[in-house]
Specification:
By secondary structure, the protein is of the alpha/beta class. The protein has 10 helices and 8 strands. 40% of the residues lie in helices and 13% in strands. The strands form 2 sheets. Strands 5-6-1-7-8 form a 5-stranded mixed beta sheet. It has a 3-stranded mixed beta sheet with strand order 3-2-4. A hairpin with a 2-residue loop joins strand 5 and strand 6. The chain is globular and about 55 Å long.
Length: 248
């Protein structure tokens, strides 16, 4: 049986959940439709951007930057304080629903998880149809959107869920990596951070395809065991299985 993994990721979770919470409490303005962020105190002008709306992205507001800098980019920015208890509640609601479909779930953060769909895929016309049903059910019953990546290995499912957002389903099977993944900049590869990108740039490795076609021994000379991992991921090599350890 060919493995089928889903990676489910809530789109801009903290902001989306805050928007849904406020709408349920009677507010008419949806934070997701205006320049808005989740962060610290607007009056005291401290803290960092934890999440941002799509309209906020138009002002080049970045997750992790100081709120004072975000306000310089957009003085009319709406700022909502974080509510971690509410995030946990929304996360549990999502995971409870997903576990009605299969117990084979690995929650890796408050807003994302893997699902092993291999043993239940026969219940659906296709993996894409199943993912779309899940995505639409989440939106229709919980009010927020998710991206779902589908693959025959976990790392590629994760990569697929990071493709175009929001509220979309993408596939990235091993047979598709040359077309869909290799043209991407190496910075798009899961676990390839800034220092690794810079080291690979020195080797004239700029795309994931460049890395996949490189000699792994040379990569390891420069990036040690992490280089081997990145080379394997670039080639769609991942034997990881679902580990049923939930958090939150």
């Amino acid at each position: 049986m060919e493995p089928i993994f889903f990676h489910i990721d809530v789109n801009s979770a903290f902001l989306s959940w805050t928007a849904v919470e406020r709408l349920e409490q009677g507010e008419t303005l949806d934070l997701r439709l205006i320049p808005s962020i989740i962060g610290g105190d607007k009056e005291k002008r401290h803290g960092i951007v934890l999440a941002k709306s799509v309209p906020a992205k138009a002002f080049n507001i970045q997750t992790g930057e100081p709120i004072v800098k975000a306000l310089e980019k957009c003085s009319a920015l709406t700022i909502a304080a974080p509510d971690h208890a509410m995030y946990q509640r929304r996360s549990r609601l999502l995971m409870t629903y997903l576990k009605t479909l299969t117990p084979d779930i690995e929650q890796v953060s408050i807003d994302e998880c893997y699902m092993d769909f291999s043993t239940i895929i026969h219940r659906y016309p296709s993996a894409i149809e199943a993912a779309n049903q899940i995505k639409d059910t989440i939106y229709n019953t919980m009010g927020f959107t998710v991206n779902i990546g589908i693959s025959d290995c976990k790392v590629l499912a994760k990569m697929a869920s990071d493709f175009k957002k929001p509220n979309l389903v993408h596939t990235l099977f091993r047979k598709e990596i040359e077309q869909k993944m290799w043209p991407l900049p190496v910075s798009s590869l899961y676990m390839c951070g800034k220092s690794s990108v810079e080291e690979l740039r020195k080797l004239e490795i700029l795309t994931i395809g460049d890395l996949a076609r490189a000699n792994p021994d040379i990569i390891c000379l420069h990036l040690k065991s992490h280089g081997r991992l990145l080379w394997e991921y670039a080639n769609g090599m991942d034997k990881a299985i679902i580990t049923k350890i939930a958090i939150g």
